UniProtKB/TrEMBL annotation:
InterPro entries: CTLH_C, Topless_fam, TPR1-like_2nd, WD40/YVTN_repeat-like_dom_sf, WD40_repeat_CS, WD40_repeat_dom_sf, WD40_rpt
Name the UniProt record assigns to this protein: CTLH domain-containing protein
Keyword terms, alphabetized: Repeat, Repressor, WD repeat
Gene Ontology biological-process entries: primary shoot apical meristem specification; regulation of DNA-templated transcription
Intervals holding WD repeats: 368-411, 513-544, 835-867
Keyword flag Magnesium: no
Sequence segments annotated as region (Disordered): 214-233, 1019-1052
Keyword Repressor assigned: yes
Organism the protein comes from: Ambrosia artemisiifolia (Common ragweed)
Matching Gene3D superfamilies: YVTN repeat-like/Quinoprotein amine dehydrogenase (2.130.10.10)
Domain CTLH: residue ranges: 1-55
């Protein structure tokens, strides 16, 4: 310890870490993580204390970024220290002394952590050596010196032979394996061999890339452990700070939340589906049939027997295989991201793609002779802005096909065994595919025909599938070995290593175990005639459910998107639907809708599929190899989940109806009294006259407003006993927050009257900064201190809309009042591109990170689509105004992307509309009646299931987003006092949706007041969706009630 203490006291941080690396790595356990964090944090603080900002940024990016995945909030707080003149302004660091005393305090804590770390046990004292043993060591060292050259020559020869044997097509030394995240941050600039025994090394990421990805090891001698590594037992230990280690006064608390102790007691969560709610019998046969089911009514909508659509177009090997053995089974069924297509992968050669048009209308779309032998998996993805089908098969290849034409685009070769599964995904703006093969190899491919980027061994080394959590941040795999040993593991993408292994499988599984993820929190797998659940952050089994019995040894499972329902294959060739309480209400709702439709009109059409949960069923399992996989459960209206749709319908359980009144006829929900919902008027600022812009912070615990007089207002909700989450709510009043300095965030207004200018702002993803303008220069504010970091772009022209690039916060799209769009790089203070296409000022901008496009809208009522790669204009279209309507000369048109990143909402004073981006076609439209007040603003709910719209008569309407059907109307009398109601000039200017609570929104009014709205807790939702049979029209005329009127009138 003496050497270690001296190095710490002297601040030789590189030597300190090098010394520690001989005993432990940063993620071996929670103690090791805390040790490395304290050392790197101290190094960071010392650089800040010397005002060496460039050095501090380098430490932040290279050394501290690795901890962001374990505690993002802490990393944000550390990052914000860069904005302070003296980091001691941070309350928790206010008692930080000089460097020497800080090192001494830290050393005390490091000693405690080292002594508590089991990896240092019996290693803290130098061992006693006998004289004879010491002489032996000396003799061995002398012998080593004499033979060193011969040994090195031998090693070089053996290394060369091994590399040649591993890489027959490229006889050059093989680089070390590349971490999963590392190969994504720097796409290669040179060609790669098509087959390699190890991954291609791409070098360390640049500083911008490192900001986006966790730091990866740079020492080429480090081995990345596999599932069989000795490090496995270490990596499954929980991470976090225990109470037994106290924090010194100069330490920011580092609680790596979510990594719980194994001893933590878990109760089975109520939100996991455990109750058998439906049983679908005789789902499949042994001849490759597929079926489509409406789960609410248990009705089979479609049954398709297997047949080759065009035998003459099939290859001779396929024709010969069918003649030899006509038996075919289904290996995979999956929906496209928008639910318009579904694909079926068969055990012999082909993939069939069907188009779905609602109800029982299923049509043949594409038939692809994809692989020689079986097609083992199938997925949809959006590389290069177009929908593609990805397949893999017995011929050891992965292929990518155009989903519209069936043309083959890529063939990936490199596996040495049949490819079992594919998992497409994207990180930042990089699209890629993981694949697994029956020899246990995991490979990753970019869409460039340049070979695999990684090559790892999957635990189990046989049948393995991979999946990301719903938010795309955590990677898991599940596999079963030939001996029946099953594994679910989480991967550390930054290191290409297994992060944790989940326990609780049967010692010898009786089939290939399949799994699924839900709620960014739970894992589930079918094993031992039951469904087993795990919390993602705890390796111990959470609970096991047998679904009332009747399950096969390894049942197949699939969650719907919100985790309220779980489909499970049964041993009698059926499917059981398990539900939690929300799922049960959801199913009752759809059952009632079907009942109502049948009872009112005997010949009434079936409920639209958007209000149902269809199930696509494959053939029954067979006893041979890969074809034992059975039904996958898909969705029609569900949105894309990171480019891969493997879930049920994305229908929130809040869309429910009274299950007890089956004769109930749908009726628009009118809210006319304050007692019918929860609303909260936020504390006022007397200096503000009108709210021009409004947004929730991304964390959901604050609301930021920009007033017409260029002043920003920030309301923060505090965490307390009444509000344990600290999130925004209508039940508790927040604080109108200001820093201790008392300064206000006020925009530059130049020589203009801010009341006459256009206000705009954009918030960074980590809530640290806001970029804002009110007719003058654009200002960048620190959200913690309210200080102005910089100003730029003096008018004219003035900025009218701001949008951060989704992959790079340094790139901003700035809409101008001269009709141009400027693509500005903050880091280098340079305009990269100027986009011209509009004729009036820009009023809306929205990025799609899936399609890599920017959509713009202007006061000219024109919508343009621009490539975010080269910034060229792809399409443009003028908004079609309703017949007989004329828009104001400078009427705003706003755009906002749907959660699927493929469709977007258009808001204009005359209409609401949903557009499909690639064709720029209007697929839904809602138009108020001529006598109605104009629309002032509208927005999607955070889950894109609802649209909230406000009007100039102070009415607020809630629509079902999928069909733009009005479901609830909130009248002005709910939130405006009688004295305000009499003032016809008070109305909503802007509406904002909570980022995590789909049923919460906020209104910014023309009198400077902000209101927050939520439905009653007993309701849990805004009204009831209109019945499906009334949804055939997309353009619905409507009227609005007079201001303050509670009378029931026709729909808007």
């Amino acid at each position: 310890m003496k050497y270690f203490e001296d190095e710490v006291q002297n601040g030789n941080w590189d030597d300190v870490e090098k010394y520690l690396s001989g005993f432990t790595k940063v993620d071996d356990n929670r103690y090791s993580m805390k040790i490395f964090f304290e050392i790197r944090k101290q190094k960071y603080l010392e650089a800040l204390d010397k005002h060496d900002r460039s050095k501090a940024v380098e430490i932040l990016v290279k050394d501290l970024k690795v901890f962001a995945s374990f505690n993002e909030e802490l990393f944000k707080e550390i990052t914000q220290l860069l904005t302070l003149e003296n980091f001691r302004e941070n309350e928790q660091l206010s008692k930080y002394g000089d460097t020497k005393s800080a090192r001494a305090i830290m050393l005390v804590e490091l000693k405690k952590l080292i002594e508590a770390n089991p990896l240092f046990r019996d290693k803290l004292q130098f061992p006693n050596l006998k004289n004879s043993r010491l002489r032996t060591l000396i003799n061995q060292s002398i012998n080593f010196v004499r033979t060193r050259d011969r040994i090195l020559i031998s090693k070089h020869y053996l290394l060369t032979i091994r590399v040649v044997n591993q890489m027959p097509f490229q006889p050059t030394p093989g680089p070390v394996p590349t971490p999963l995240a590392g190969w994504m941050s720097n796409p290669p600039q040179v060609a790669h061999p098509s087959v390699s025994g190890s991954a291609i090394g791409l070098g360390g990421p640049s500083i911008p890339a490192a900001l986006k990805h966790p730091r990866t090891p740079t020492n080429p001698s480090l081995d990345f452990p596999t599932g069989d590594s000795d490090h496995m037992s270490k990596r499954t230990r929980p991470m976090g700070i225990t109470e037994e280690v106290s924090l010194p006064i100069n330490v920011l608390p580092a609680a790596f939340q979510g990594h719980n102790s194994h001893t933590q007691a878990f109760n089975a969560p109520d939100d996991l589906p455990k109750t058998v709610a439906r049983t679908l019998n005789q789902v499949g046969t042994n001849v490759g049939d597929i079926g489509l089911w409406e789960v609410g009514s248990r009705e089979k909508l479609v049954l398709r027997n297997f047949k080759v659509w065009d035998l003459s177009a099939c290859s001779m090997p396929m024709q010969a295989a069918l003649v030899k053995d006509p038996g075919v089974s289904v290996n995979r069924v999956i929906w496209s991201p928008d639910g318009s297509l579904f694909g079926v992968a068969y055990s012999k050669h082909i993939v069939q793609i069907y188009s779905y048009h609602g109800g029982d209308d299923v049509r043949q779309h594409l038939e692809i002779d994809a692989h020689v032998g079986g097609v083992n998996d199938l997925a949809f993805s959006h590389p290069n802005k177009q929908l593609c089908v990805i397949t893999c098969g017995d011929d050891k290849t992965i292929k990518v096909w155009d989903a519209a034409t069936g043309a083959r685009q890529y063939t990936f070769e490199g596996h040495d065994a049949p490819v079992y599964s594919v998992c497409p995904h994207y990180k930042e703006n990089i699209q890629f595919i993981f694949s697994t093969a029956l020899d246990g190899k995991i490979k990753a491919w970019l869409y460039d025909n340049m070979g695999s980027r990684v090559d790892y061994e999957a635990p189990g080394r046989w049948c393995t599938t991979m999946a990301y959590s719903a938010d795309g941040t955590r990677l898991f795999s599940c596999g079963t070995s030939k001996d029946g040993e099953s594994h679910i593991v989480e991967w550390n993408e930054s290191e290409g290593a297994v992060k944790r292994t989940y326990l609780g499988f049967r010692k010898r599984s009786l089939g290939v175990v399949q799994f699924d993820t839900t709620k960014n929190r739970f894992l589930a797998a079918g094993d031992d005639f039951a469904i087993k659940y795990w919390d993602m952050d705890n390796t111990q089994l959470l609970m096991s459910v047998d679904a009332d019995g009747g399950l096969p040894a390894s049942p197949r499972i699939r969650f719907n998107k919100d985790g309220a329902l779980l489909a499970v294959s049964s041993s009698d060739n059926g499917i059981k639907i398990l539900a939690n309480s929300d799922g049960l209400r959801l199913l009752r709702t759809f059952e009632n809708l079907s009942y109502d439709a049948a009872s009112r009109t005997p010949e009434a059409p079936k409920p639209a599929i958007n209000n149902t949960i269809p199930v696509a069923a494959s053939a029954a399992p067979t006893s041979a190899g890969l074809t034992e996989r059975v039904a996958s459960v898909g969705s029609i209206s569900g949105t894309a989940n990171n480019g891969d749709t493997r879930n049920l319908t994305d229908v929130k359980p809040r869309i429910t109806e009274d299950a007890n009144d089956k004769s109930k006829i749908w009726k628009l929900t009118e809210i006319s009294e304050s007692s019918q919902c929860r609303s909260l008027k936020l504390p006022e600022n007397m200096r503000v006259t009108k709210i021009s812009r409004l947004i929730y912070t991304n964390s959901g615990n604050a609301i930021l407003a920009l007033a017409s007089n260029a002043i920003h207002l920030l309301w923060k909700w505090q965490r307390n006993e009444r509000n344990s989450s600290g999130k925004a709510t209508a039940g508790i009043s927040p604080q109108l927050w200001q820093p201790s300095s008392g300064i206000l965030m006020t925009n530059d207004v130049a020589d203009m009257n801010p009341e006459e200018s256009v206000s705009c702002f954009a918030l960074s993803k980590n809530d640290s900064y806001v970029m804002s303008a009110s007719g003058g220069k654009i200002s960048l504010f620190n959200m913690m201190t309210f200080k102005t970091m910089t100003t730029f772009m003096s008018p004219p022209p003035a900025a009218t809309f701001l949008a951060f690039h989704p992959q790079d916060n340094n790139i901003i799209a700035i809409g101008m009042d001269d009709s141009t769009i400027q693509i500005y790089n903050v880091r280098v203070d340079e305009v990269k591109s100027k986009l011209k296409g509009h004729s009036k000022r820009i009023t809306g901008l929205a990025f799609s990170h899936v399609l890599n496009v920017l959509v713009s809208s202007g006061a000219d009522s024109q919508i343009c689509v621009w490539s975010s790669d080269g910034w060229e204009k792809q399409k443009a279209k003028y908004l079609q105004l309703p017949s007989g309507r004329t828009a104001a000369a400078q009427s705003d048109t706003r755009v906002q992307f749907h959660q699927d990143q493929i469709h977007f909402l258009v808001v204009h004073e005359t209409q609401l509309a949903i557009y499909e981006t690639s064709k720029l076609e209007c697929v839904r439209q809602w138009v108020p009646r001529e006598s109605s007040a104009p629309i002032s603003h509208a927005t999607f709910s955070c889950d894109s299931q609802l649209v909230y719209a406000c009007f100039l008569d102070a009415t607020v309407c809630v629509f079902t987003a999928s069909r733009l059907r009005l479901r609830c109307r909130i009248n002005p009398s709910v939130y405006l006092s009688p004295s305000v109601l009499s003032n016809l000039n008070v109305h909503p200017m802007v509406i904002a949706a909570h980022p995590q609570e789909p049923n919460q929104f906020a209104l910014g009014l023309s009198d400077g007041v902000v209101h927050v709205f939520e439905p009653l807790e007993s309701e849990g939702k805004w009204g009831v969706p209109p019945p499906a049979e009334n949804a055939s029209t997309s353009n619905v005329a409507a009227t609005s009630p007079a201001r303050g009127s509670g009378s029931e009138q026709g729909q808007r």
